[in-house]
Task: structure prediction
Amino acid sequence: MKIHHVGYLVKDINKALKEFGKIGFILIQEICYDSFRDIEICFVENSGYILELVSPKSEESIAWNLLKKYGNAPYHICYIVENLEETVSNLKDQGYVLVAEPKEAIALRSKKVAFLIGRNMGLIELVEI
Result:
């Protein structure tokens, strides 16, 4: 699997954009709001490396508790897969736990994504492209 991006939790997405800009990251996808997950998201890039800035908007957001616990920090790696259902099934067979059923992600042009946790790996996201 090839890495698509690293997810990075931020309290204030606009302030984070300015800070990442100071170290060479450029905005490659404007801020959008994902109402299902109650988060603002944008993508920045530097030398081929892509970060997804994720800012929870309320306590109901799926990322709120992570931000409370860790503060501004990287929290997942997203991998590109050809067949989402097959890859999810294979990873579950290897002990990964599916934490969110596959669902379209507005920030990824409505591509289906799934989140899994591996005991020795942490949180990963899969996107079918």
User: Anything to note?
Assistant: Residues 13-22 form the longest helix (10 residues). The chain has a mean pLDDT of 97. The two ends are 11 Å apart (CA to CA).
